[in-house]
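An example makes the point: we let one protein speak, the chain in one-letter code, the fold tokenised, and here it is:
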Amino acid sequence: MEYYNIIYHISIYGVRCDSARRTLTQYSEGNLRRRKGNMSLRRKTNDLMDIGLMQIEDDEGSQLSDQEVLDNIVGLVIASTWAIYYLAKYPHVLAKLRVAEETIRMAIIAAFVFRMATREVEYKGYKIPRNWKVIIWARYFHTNPESFEDPTQTDGI
């Protein structure tokens, strides 16, 4: 029996945790099966399963097995749940995290990114044709006066 299974079964919450883990695994398994069912007909999303776990390859070029994808998803959900719990329990840690978030917002490393328009769009009266290369000024998102009262100052820290 793996270590984490032992922890589930000896903890006072073991039964509920194990049940929740099984439910999450079953849901994720169904979702994975649907996505892999007919890859040519379905619309690809930009979530962790599509652009991450289903595409990862090891040194030999093999993709993760379905079980490895499911284990990673369940592990990430459980870890995220515990992270939220502890951030709520210890607000001073959340405040420190907010400081880090504001620092990253103010000192953005990637000031802009390059993208290609996948379809024709209109933006503020300008038509951007399909396949045009565009530059997105990411710094603008972090200093937009519509999003921040005073975008040149840290937000309340």
Notes: Residues 3-89 form one domain.
